[in-house]
Specification:
Number of helices: 10
Pfam families: Methyltransf_11
Structural class: alpha/beta
Radius of gyration: 20 Å
Protein name: SAM-dependent methyltransferase
CATH class of one domain: Alpha Beta
CATH topology of one domain: Rossmann fold
Strand order of the largest sheet: 3-2-1-4-5-7-6
Order of helices and strands: EHEHEEHEHHHEHHHEH
Distance between the termini: 48 Å
Keywords: Methyltransferase, Transferase
InterPro entries: Erg6_SMT_methyltransf, Methyltransf_11, SAM-dependent_MTases_sf
Strand content: 15-25%
GO molecular function: S-adenosylmethionine-dependent methyltransferase activity
Length: 248
């Protein structure tokens, strides 16, 4: 995500829905949010919980920041209406057969005026992965659909969200997944896949200028993920005296 577009201020209550290993939850925690890392996978959540504790012990988070893990189903979020200031749903909707129901739950628990950031695999890179490997998308818990950005935006607009813009990300990751699909998604010993994976780890850890420029150039056409930002419209205030008179 672009935190210039999705600004998180200390003390905001933020849900990371489908947090997985916790990448976004950790960054939200560092920014001082009150984070809820939510997922169905208890094993993943146990790892996220340990990392939250380690981050606190190492002084990586502001004193007022809070973080917790919650296990549950995206189709029935265990939170009250209008509960969160912001929500992240990263690389999760493509796994959910009833995605519209999950979207309605996101709308329900987000405060009016709150922001939602959604990422899903971009259509072209994902289409190639599906064509190269059946295992890529038929494994249990795998992807059940390929979104176009227009479809994703239309569904969330129909749910009640307003679209606020988009961009693509992870252009360097797309060739890696094409290689993995070509040689076998479970073939971790393939020399080319291993070498490319080392490059990606180096890029993530060191953020060198060369790879940053390369990814910036690749993102618009080969970005592995599309990131779309939404807002839950604020409820209209009670009508003014003038509006009441005009209505009469």
């Amino acid at each position: 995500m672009d935190f210039q577009r999705f600004r998180v201020t200390p003390g905001e209550r933020v849900l990371d829905m489908g947090c997985g290993a916790g990448r976004h939850a950790f960054e939200l925690y560092r920014r001082g949010a009150h984070v809820v890392a939510f997922d169905l996978d208890a094993e993943e959540l146990a790892g996220v919980e340990k990392m939250f504790g380690a981050m606190r012990l190492e002084g990586e988070v502001p004193e007022q920041a809070r973080a917790e893990t919650v296990r549950g189903d995206a189709l029935d979020l265990p939170f009250p209406d209008d509960h969160f200031d912001k929500i992240v749903a990263s690389e999760v909707l493509e796994h959910i057969p009833d995605d519209m129901r999950a979207m309605r739950e996101l709308l329900r628990v987000l405060k009016p005026g709150g922001q939602l950031a959604v990422t899903v695999p971009a259509w072209l890179p994902e289409r190639v992965c599906w064509a190269l490997s059946e295992d890529y998308h038929t494994a249990p818990g795998g992807h059940v659909r390929i979104y176009t950005r227009a479809e994703l935006e239309a569904k969330l607009k129909a749910t009640g969200f307003r679209v606020d813009g988009h961009h693509h990300a992870h252009g360097l990751h797309t060739p890696y997944w094409w290689i993995k699909c070509a040689v076998g998604v479970n073939n971790d010993g393939n020399p080319l896949a291993k070498a490319y994976h080392q490059v990606l780890v180096w890029d993530i850890m060191k953020r060198p200028l060369a790879t940053r420029l390369a990814e910036k150039a690749l993102n618009p056409v080969l970005g592995k993920s599309v990131v779309v930002y939404f807002t839950k419209p604020a409820r209209r205030d009670a009508p003014s005296t003038k509006e009441k008179v005009d209505a009469v």
